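Any chance you could type out some protein's one-letter sequence along with its backbone structure tokens so I can compare the two?
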Amino acid sequence: MMPPVPTAVRRVAAIHDLSGFGGGSLAAAIPILSSMGFQVCALPTALLSTHTGGFTGFHFRDLTDDMAAILAHWQELKLRFAAIYSGFLGSPEQIRIVQEACATVGKDALIVVDPVLGDNGALYPTMDDAMVAGMRKLAAHAHVITPNVTEAALLLGEPLDMVSALPTQVIKDWARRLAATGPCWVVLTGLPAAAPDRTQTVAYDRRTDKFWRVECDYVPASYPGTGDMFASVLTGALLQGDSLPIALDRAVHFVALAIRATFGHGAPEREGVLLERVLPSLAAPVSLSSYQLL
């Protein structure tokens, strides 16, 4: 009997929407994770002509039925993945399909859930209470979750008017409570820092009860898709064997570099960042890091 053939490149199942223009979602996850040495297998949740941030009149096609058929074929092929990484999901049925993927083709995989629900203290228009409840269940089965502060409040049932300014002790409490539902690592993004011209991202490791913080300068621009970029780099770094604080540091500074590379050009924010300008930096060795214990 011949020995099994090892997989030359580890595979990541990326479960996100795909926009033809504007970047983000699969348009970010595929090049980022490919640049980091992984084969990205897309399980698209929806197809859009553009992303929804700043564009109107966009074409949208729901791919729920296609998702089920794609996953069924993957199961027939007995595919296995190093990671299952989900982002925008459009319905409770899509959440169920992701859960099935984790239980079948994702056995022994790193499960990363970016619980896309809202931002700036409000639910996204396509989200409702059923999606919040479904995302809570999905996040509970993840190893890593990456909510922004609004999504953290939604997952915890906290008032959304709290998210504009959270004291450090509240941030720690929220992270511990989220981790207590299941995830080993909780990464909270979009947090204001003590200085008005700075922002911070905080990660919590339930195994060690340690908190890590990375700060960066605030740039007065809001580009769609940066959250997808952050979660993609974080996923790739963890799969490469980086510690949580190093993975956090790499993801924060990659996004900050992309924003700075774009901001000076003055392009419309709704068109996203110039990802292609900074992709080569992902191949650079880990340099001196700026993470801090919180």
Notes: The CA atoms of residues 28 and 129 lie 28 Å apart. The chain has a mean pLDDT of 93. DSSP finds nine helices and 14 strands in the chain. Residues 11-277+288-293 form a domain with the UDP-N-acetylmuramoyl-L-alanine:D-glutamate ligase fold (CATH 3.40.1190.20).
